UniProtKB/TrEMBL annotation:
It comes from the Bacteria. InterPro entries: DUF554 (IPR007563). This is DUF554 domain-containing protein. PANTHER family: INNER MEMBRANE PROTEIN, INNER MEMBRANE PROTEIN-RELATED. The chain crosses the membrane at residues 30-49, 56-75, 100-122, 142-168, 188-208, 215-235. It comes from Cytobacillus mangrovibacter. Coiled coil: none annotated. It holds the Pfam family DUF554. Keywords: Membrane, Transmembrane, Transmembrane helix.
Length: 239
């Protein structure tokens, strides 16, 4: 079953959120310190990912054009609107206005951005090997638990875009493997990891309260990275 790893990933995010919900009654001072700690940890993770790129110029160009596209289509506003809609449907969560929106957007970005989602989904779809996604599931479940203690139950809803995103990759994995050369895929994953790392670092800055970067508006940078890496690959191949 090629979707098994993806479904386990979504399930552990939900379980982690429910466990984190049991711990939400912690003192505000402690909650604030935990939020700073999470922000610092996420920044370190983003920094590690960002330094894995082979050509940082690709990362810069991708982020610039990705930001232009994201701002034009106001992706952050659309994600927040979806979170606000969920908040209205569920009623007051008792954790402050907009908590579902913030938790949903932040967790979705953290769980979706990264190489493990793509590599794991490809392994699931091509070879039926779910080990990478099982590992990601454990990490995401624990992260969901921690995030829920400060961002609220909105983290739970990030499980749905994660399942859809990874599920689509797993579904079309055979076609991707057939038409995309291995060298090109490896190059894309490397540069995508670095580009995503910058976004993860920005999320950490937001969590720590240092900045308020509209990280969701940077998401098109992943697609731009794919386009640039493809152009470079075929240019080097034929010229």
């Amino acid at each position: 079953m090629f979707l098994l790893g993806t479904l386990v990933n979504g399930l552990l995010i939900i379980i982690g959120t429910l466990l984190g919900k049991l711990l939400h009654r912690i003192p505000e001072n402690m909650k604030g310190t935990v939020m700073y700690a999470i922000g610092l940890a996420v920044m370190v993770l983003g920094l590690q990912m960002g330094l894995k790129g082979d050509n940082f110029l690709v990362v810069i160009i991708s982020l610039v054009f990705g930001a232009v596209i994201g701002e034009y289509f106001a992706l952050e506003n659309k994600l927040n609107a979806l979170g606000d809609w969920l908040e209205k449907k569920l009623g007051s969560s008792g954790q402050g206005q907009g908590s579902i929106s913030q938790g949903f957007v932040t967790a979705t970005l953290i769980f979706v951005i990264g190489a493990m989602a793509i590599i794991g989904a490809l392994d699931s779809g091509i070879r039926g090997d779910h080990d990478v996604l099982y590992t990601k599931s454990i990490i995401d479940g624990f992260t969901a638990l921690i995030l829920t203690t400060t961002l609220g139950v909105g983290v739970l809803f990030s499980a749905f875009p994660v399942v859809i995103y990874q599920g689509l990759i797993a579904l079309f994995a055979t076609q991707i493997d057939r038409f995309v050369p291995t060298e090109l895929m490896n190059s894309f994953i490397t540069e995508m990891t670095a580009t995503g790392g910058v976004m993860i670092f920005a999320i950490g800055l937001n969590l720590a309260g240092i900045t308020k970067i509209r990280v969701a508006n940077l998401l098109p940078a992943i697609l731009v990275t794919g386009v640039i890496v493809t152009i470079i690959h075929f240019y080097q191949l034929y010229f």
